[in-house]
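Quick one, tokens below:
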């Protein structure tokens, strides 16, 4: 008996220390890697942020110091222009002395048109020189400002002109001592931040590594338990790491799978049927959620479009006031050109917002059509007046005809009808380069027919299948000649449908197009 058991004891003693040593080395290696990784990441982030902050402060200071120098030169030019013109040296010298007292000013020089030093506060010998100063002569002969950075100062100089006459030049030298002190403070703060971050990172890395390695050790023990055939004890290992929890769940799933591998076919079929039923229920629920999300999207789009109209109307109104030079506003031609660009783009953006608002109102089912009296003759004149300017600008002939057989007054939503006609007329003018555009209103049985005909580019047959879809245009390329969002015709079709009408298209490429809208004629009695 002793001889039989002794080899087994020897085998256990030889294996156990090896397993302990392998486990210890793996734990120590992972711990070290985690600590090193966390410290490296924190140091990289802190050093990058510190360097970025120093570079940004450097850029800001340089920009501010150049701006300060230019402001000082502007002030010198503004105050000394007349005196330079009349060569009033005493007054120029007094002005230079007053500017020389400003903060950070190390050197200030004012030169005459020949590059000679007129004023050099603090250096009377330079003022007494009769020959031209080389740097002053360089500034006088150069139309561009001169900017030079040195170790302890910034040098900025430029020429002063009055029309085509050179009045002189000036240059200032501003100290960079304050900037160097600020950069040094930033560097010290960065070093301190890196030190604190390293200490904090070390503590965090130690805590994280311990929280990770212990669950891994427990997982190894659980795997050994399954390997020995013990499948009754559940594996419940909790960790802050999602990956470790997933691995624990996977091992637990493997254990339970081994327990259920011998279940009969009927149980599997029942389980599968239950899973399919659950999937179907989830699909139905997902469809309901998708429909609700679509409705919420439409409502959100409607709300945002409505909220955007207020500031856009304000921008357009204030631009109109400035272009009309009201309230004492004065500006040059360049500013007027920019204001007109703002005006045209705000009108375009407001139109886009209105299109989105109209589309969202229709899709959300919140479009309510009014019933008010409409005089077809007056409406046609109004539509023509609104777009006649666009036609005139392109040299197009805009023709309007109204059938005398139409009732003098019909009832309907004039605003919606106007949107339909303006969209179609606007498109006709936009896509017609020469010829004419015709608006024809006539009566056909119990319907009013609105036909818009142009002599434009026409619409190819393949495009007629999607021309009324949202966000679709004939030319969808990035280099298309005509702009737009592709919402106009979609809104037209939806509004016409809401008015119990229909819209149709006839077109030939290179000849032109005709959009025909047919809506029921509603009389006063029918409206009531």
């Amino acid at each position: 008996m002793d001889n039989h058991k002794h080899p087994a004891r020897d085998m256990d003693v030889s294996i156990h220390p090896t397993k302990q040593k392998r486990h210890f080395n793996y734990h120590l290696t992972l711990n070290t890697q985690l600590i090193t990784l966390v410290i490296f990441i924190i140091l990289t982030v802190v050093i990058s942020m510190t360097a970025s902050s120093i570079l940004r402060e450097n850029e800001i200071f340089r920009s501010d110091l150049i701006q300060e120098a230019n402001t000082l030169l502007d002030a010198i030019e503004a105050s000394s222009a007349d005196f330079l013109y009349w060569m009033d040296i005493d007054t120029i010298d007094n002005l230079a002395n007053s500017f020389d007292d400003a903060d950070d000013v190390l050197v200030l020089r004012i030169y005459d048109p020949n590059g000679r030093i007129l004023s050099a506060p603090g250096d009377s010998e330079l003022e007494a020189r009769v020959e031209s100063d080389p740097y002053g002569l360089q500034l006088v002969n150069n139309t561009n400002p001169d900017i030079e950075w040195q170790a302890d100062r910034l040098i900025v100089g430029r020429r002063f002109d009055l029309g085509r006459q050179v009045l002189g030049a000036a240059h200032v030298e501003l100290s960079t001592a304050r900037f160097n002190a600020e950069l040094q403070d930033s560097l010290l703060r960065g070093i301190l931040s890196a030190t604190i971050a390293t200490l904090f990172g070390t503590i965090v890395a130690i805590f994280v590594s311990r929280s990770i390695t212990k669950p891994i050790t427990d997982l190894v023990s659980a795997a050994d338990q399954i390997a020995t055939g013990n499948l009754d004890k559940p594996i419940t290992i909790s960790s802050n790491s999602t990956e470790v929890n997933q691995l624990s769940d996977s091992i637990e799933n493997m254990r339970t799978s081994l327990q259920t591998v011998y279940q009969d076919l009927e149980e599997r079929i029942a389980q599968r049927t239950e899973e399919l039923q659950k999937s179907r229920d989830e699909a139905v629920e997902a469809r309901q959620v998708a429909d609700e999300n679509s409705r919420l999207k439409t409502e959100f789009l409607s709300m945002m479009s409505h909220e955007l109209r207020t500031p856009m109307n304000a921008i357009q109104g204030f631009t109109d006031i400035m272009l009309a030079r009201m309230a004492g506003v004065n500006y040059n031609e360049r500013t007027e050109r920019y204001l007109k660009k703002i005006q045209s783009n705000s009108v375009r953006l407001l139109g886009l917002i209105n299109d989105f608002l109209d589309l969202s109102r229709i899709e959300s089912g919140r479009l309510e059509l009014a019933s008010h009296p409409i005089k077809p003759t007056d409406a046609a004149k109004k539509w023509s007046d609104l777009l006649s300017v666009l036609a005139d600008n392109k040299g197009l002939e805009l023709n309007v005809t109204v059938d005398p057989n139409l009732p003098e007054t019909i009832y309907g939503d004039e605003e919606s009808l106007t949107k339909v006609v303006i969209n179609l007329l606007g498109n006709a003018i936009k896509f017609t380069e020469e010829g004419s555009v015709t608006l024809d209103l006539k009566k056909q049985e119990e319907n009013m027919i609105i036909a818009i005909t142009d002599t434009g580019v026409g619409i190819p047959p393949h495009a007629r299948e999607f021309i009324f879809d949202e966000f679709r245009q004939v030319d969808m390329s990035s280099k298309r000649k005509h702009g737009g969002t592709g919402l106009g015709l979609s809104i037209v079709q939806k509004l016409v449908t809401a008015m119990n009408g229909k819209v149709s298209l006839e077109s030939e490429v290179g000849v032109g197009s005709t959009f025909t809208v047919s809506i029921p004629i509603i009389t006063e009695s029918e409206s009531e």
